[in-house]
Design a protein that fits this description.
The structure is a single chain. By secondary structure, the protein is an alpha+beta fold. It is about 45% helix and about 20% strand. The chain has four helices and five strands; from the N terminus they run H-H-H-H-E-E-E-E-E. Strands 1, 2, 3, 4 and 5 form a five-stranded antiparallel beta sheet that branches. The chain is globular and about 45 Å long. This is DUF3887 domain-containing protein. Keywords: Signal.
Length: about 170
């Protein structure tokens, strides 16, 4: 019986890893697309000062608020307390890579594996458009990263649920 339970857990984790990889690929594709669209041609003769390290963008309270709202909606869906947000919440590139049904399946699989979760920690980044969370779940700690567009309507362009760290 013990081996059967471990096999089921391994099967669920393998499926979770595959679906998480799908989400990660969608996130990377969407982020690459956003970067290409945001890039502008460099001037022919840029002064040396322009080659210095890029500066962090100015604080954007609207983006920070939207990012927190998007995360809360996704966490509620992850916990099964709300439906997965509709496609308008995500960029076109994200929607091309991951369907709502796939996202729901990932959320269900992870939730079954790790149990109920709450936010254990938040890692802020220099940009107001990307943040990382550590979910403290019944059976594991699960890192989750989310990124939104730099301009309104601040749709989600990346979502990455990393494999959990099992509690002993």
């Amino acid at each position: 019986m013990q081996n059967h339970t471990k096999e089921n857990r391994m099967h669920r984790m393998s499926r979770h890893a595959l679906l998480s990889t799908t989400l990660a690929c969608a996130a990377l594709a969407a982020q690459a697309q956003s970067s290409q669209e945001a890039a502008s041609p460099a001037p022919a003769a840029a002064p040396p000062a322009a080659e210095a390290a890029p500066q962090a963008p100015a604080p954007n309270p609207a983006a920070e608020k939207a990012l927190a709202q998007r995360f809360q909606a996704l966490l509620a869906a992850f916990e099964g307390k709300a439906a997965v947000p509709d496609s308008k919440t995500f960029t076109e590139d994200f929607n091309k890579q991951v369907t709502a049904d796939q996202m729901k399946q990932v959320f269900n699989d992870v939730h079954q594996s790790v149990g109920s979760c709450k936010v254990g920690a938040q890692m802020t980044s220099p940009t107001p458009y990307i943040t990382s969370y550590l979910l403290q779940c019944d059976k594991a700690y699960v890192p989750m990263d989310i990124g939104i567009e730099e301009k309104a309507p601040y749709r989600v362009h990346s979502l990455l649920i990393r494999p959990g760290y099992w509690k002993k």
